[in-house]
Write a structure and sequence with these properties.
transmembrane helix, two-stranded parallel sheet, membrane, alpha/beta, 15-stranded mixed β-sheet
């Protein structure tokens, strides 16, 4: 996502747009509105009247400074992809109807405090992709009391001054990803109306217990692809309205029992792509509304009993790409319902401890692709193909050396080396000293149960009844003929 998304038309925004000041321009006949919009349009820009008011497009115009004058009725100004380097005092004059201002992909290195004075109705400000900005003065946004969306993505900011956002009581959405923060900016604390915070792909190393204080309306927090090694206990205690929390692709190796305490409205939790070695029983105790849980691409080898037992509304659980060999049904009890379970890319040991999972795969169809890594008798099979034997008491018996399933092919042809070795064994018997008739008969009877070739040889012994030298010659002849046939 390149900065903030387009306005989504929420009820709060619609109320904000239905202001009497807006209707002065929007209520004009279309010809008059168009004339008012284009009358003072900057030379390098294009201006047009739209349903949202007068729109001024100055993107990709090669501008090195802000135009001296804009239409007084301007509701939206786009100055993206120019060469602007500096914003001075009242850089845009007085524009009482301006609601949206975009300055993305310029070369801004300094913004004078007071640069946005004269824009009392500005609701959205985009400053993304100004890589030379690096620093913002604490009073930069002092005049923007109605600002709802602020985009500071990819500005290479090292920090955000503590008082910078305190001047924005109406702020709802902050995009500040792709910066150089080492901690969650302290400027976020106390933003009572903030609902969305995008802080991904920076260098944040921890979420402290005080990082998110006062964010009581926060609904979405993105912290993925940082360097987070620690989430302190109670870090989200003030975020009772949080619905989506993304902590994937960080460096988390463990979590405190109270890591997600108080997040009773959370619907999505992404912990994928970390270094977690186990799933703790207490982690998800408060997450009764959770629908999507991502634990993929970790090093999880063990899931504690009852770890998922409170997640009664879970629609999908991702455990793929871990080190799991077994998953106990006790991790889900009691009364657990799950929409989809993703378990591929794990070294599963398909013994009786996974029989419940095999049965669930067959009955629900909500899990598939569980390849067995062990024991050797079933390695390479999918768990759905494994057959578990039963004792007379009805107890499960682990797969034996061979585990035939309904989908297993018939007996494979015997390798030539095995057949030749059997003939070698017969030859040894023929060369042995002649035994009494009774012993020969018994030996022949046993040989009848080996193979067709063995039967032919043993038949020669019984039917022909000649001397040992004749038997030897016949046996060698049969061996030579058989070997030539095999070649």
């Amino acid at each position: 996502m390149d900065g903030l998304g387009e306005p989504k038309g929420t009820s709060e925004e619609e109320q904000d747009q239905a202001d009497p000041q807006d209707t002065v321009v929007l209520g004009l006949p279309s010809a008059w509105a168009e004339e008012a919009c284009t009358r003072t349009c900057p030379a390098a820009c294009s201006c047009s009247s739209t349903e949202r008011g007068c729109s001024v497009r100055c993107d990709r115009a090669g501008l090195l400074r802000v135009p001296a004058e804009f239409p007084c009725e301007a509701a939206s100004i786009d100055l993206d992809r120019n060469g602007l380097r500096f914003l001075g005092e009242r850089a845009f004059g007085t524009l009482p109807s301006l609601r949206r201002l975009s300055l993305r992909h310029n070369n801004l290195s300094f913004i004078t405090p007071g640069a946005f004075k004269g824009l009392p109705r500005l609701a959205e400000l985009r400053l993304a992709h100004n890589g030379e900005l690096r620093y913002l003065h604490a009073r930069t946004f002092a005049a923007l009391s109605r600002l709802r969306r602020l985009d500071l993505a990819s500005c290479r900011l090292f920090t955000v001054p503590e008082r910078l956002l305190a001047e924005l009581p109406a702020l709802r959405e902050l995009a500040a990803f792709d910066n150089l923060f080492r901690r969650v900016p302290g400027a976020l604390r106390g933003l009572a109306n903030l609902t969305h915070a995008h802080l991904e792909r920076s260098r944040i190393e921890a979420v402290a217990s005080s990082s998110l204080q006062g964010l009581r309306r926060l609904r979405s927090l993105s912290l993925q692809a940082n360097r987070v090694r620690a989430v302190h206990a109670g870090a989200f205690r003030d975020c009772g309205a949080l619905e989506h929390l993304l902590l994937n692709d960080n460096l988390l190796a463990e979590l405190p029992a109270e890591a997600f305490q108080g997040l009773r409205r959370l619907r999505t939790l992404n912990l994928g792509g970390n270094a977690l070695g186990l799933v703790g029983r207490a982690w998800f105790a408060d997450l009764a509304e959770l629908e999507l849980l991502y634990l993929d691409r970790n090093s999880i080898a063990f899931v504690e009993e009852g770890a998922f037992q409170n997640l009664s509304g879970l629609l999908a659980l991702h455990l793929n790409g871990n080190h799991l060999t077994v998953l106990a049904w006790a991790a889900f009890q009691p009364g657990f319902f799950l929409g989809r379970l993703f378990l591929f890319r794990n070294p599963w040991r398909c013994d009786c401890r996974l029989e419940w999972l095999r049965d669930w795969m067959e009955s629900s169809g909500r899990v598939a692709d569980v390849p067995c890594a062990s024991p050797g008798s079933v390695a390479g099979l999918d768990l759905s193909q494994v057959a578990f034997a039963r004792t007379s008491d009805g107890l499960c018996v682990d797969p034996e050396e061979l585990n035939f399933t309904a989908s297993s092919p018939g007996p494979s042809p015997e390798p030539a080396a095995t057949t030749v070795s059997r003939f070698s064994s017969l030859l040894s018997k023929l060369l042995a000293p002649r035994a009494p008739v009774e012993e020969v008969a018994n030996t022949t009877e046993g040989m009848l149960n080996t193979s067709l070739s063995d039967s032919l040889l043993s038949g020669g012994v019984v039917v022909l009844g000649h001397s040992t030298w004749f038997l030897l010659g016949s046996g060698l002849l049969l061996i030579v003929v058989f070997v030539l046939h095999m070649d």
